[in-house]
Amino acid sequence: IVLKPSELTPRTAELLVHLWQKAELPDGVLNLVQGDRATGATLASHPLINGLYFTGSATTGCYLHEQFSGQPEKILALEMGGNNPLLVTEAKDIQAAVFHTIQSAYITSGQRCTCARRLIVPEGHAGDRFIEALRKAITQIQVGAYNLQPAPFMGAMISNTAVDNVVGMARTLIEQGAQPLVELHRPDPQHAYLTPGLIDVTKVKNREDKECFGPLLQVIRVP
Prior knowledge:
By secondary structure, this protein is of the alpha/beta class. About 35% of the residues lie in helices and about 15% in strands. Helix 4 packs across helix 5. The chain starts with a strand and ends with a strand.
């Protein structure tokens, strides 16, 4: 089983394996190997691999698919990048809708496969009220270290590279005509903290249907 780091931290993985050992799972049935891209590529290409279950980006999934081509005797299951939509329409309780939107889009700094990436909201006064309430709430989200008191809602992203990817995608969307409603901000260039962003991509033509794995929610206004 290959997991991207943001899905399962190294320490959490170690604890899970320890629990299996405490449950008397025989040695060798479950093994944990920590590593980066090179480690994963080496494991996936090993001749003794009988199957692989992968959760991660579409780019890596396509690479693994190519490696396993012509080997129908091996199991390959891929759960790759999604671009989950969240539809908010005729919300009678705006604050409740804002709460659930924030929980869906920004929990774990947007680093979950289940996080909302696209927010679809009807045009008009009701939609405007919701977007404005959401914008104000997002600006109040605290970002910081896990051991701060009071505890922040969002912690660090998995790496500085991940932060650069999200910032780069936001910059590209703005160059294509998107309107930032809440701009991403990097409080400390030495650490992987990133404040949440909200961006209106309604006017972006031929927008790439690609997952942005981080705290950036894209708004699409519809009739």
